[in-house]
Amino acid sequence: MESNKSILIIGKPESAKTTFLAQFIILARKDKSKVKFWKTPENIQPIEDAIKRLRGANETQATPAESNEVILLPIKIAKENISLNCPDYGGEQINEILNLRTFNPQWQSLIKNSSSWIFFIRPKQVEALFDLSNKSYKANIEESKKSTEQVFKVSEQSNLIELLQMMLYVKKCSFQKEITNPKLTIALTCWDEVDEVIAPNNLLAKLLPLLNQFIHTNWHKDAVNVIGISAQGFELKSQANKDKYLDDGSTKFAYVVKNNTTDKVYDITELIVESL
From CA 61, how far away is CA 49, in angstroms rounded? Predict the structure, then answer.
């Protein structure tokens, strides 16, 4: 049995989207994960450079801003064959969408035809800006005293909520009932950079409370996942870490942490399994 499902991965620059796709393909090729290929993929050329870099113990490079490719992955989960469409694009396009408040025809098509959305959010990139959801009025006054110049900037979670609203509008989703299609997964990336032992659900609520509330207010509970993921395992700046990659392979150290747990699962293809 074969089915067609389309996952749209949303990620700003340096959110580890490219690293994840490269590691995912390496694992599926090895036939040692929950997700396998039931035939050889035909168009992974856009991600081949990232695969080669990881195998050589080098960090991946950002996808060019103008890049727009759809990688077709013939994957198998349990006994089901799935033709999975994974767009690969430059993360700068997300910033441009937010600045222009509009989607071009290609993006509209991707949104309309997708059955699952995965939002890649790197916790380290989330700035601690003033936000009524996580600061008191008193705290804001104290900060104002320290600086006479105040620069307005929209918070990260406000941007993400607006992006979700725009996508739901294109998808023609109604807020009259809980959303089940598309399924939504929040992937908190570069989990190895998180300093505390905490479940992904709790970190999302702590870091982006308004976004967390928006999601759980509008999506059905069975259509939402929050997953921590470290697609690389650790930085590859030191020679010792590079040697680990060269000795044991790049995928050995990559892992996910699911929803309300703090346990590491060393199979990042679980992110795709959970999102379908």
Answer: 9
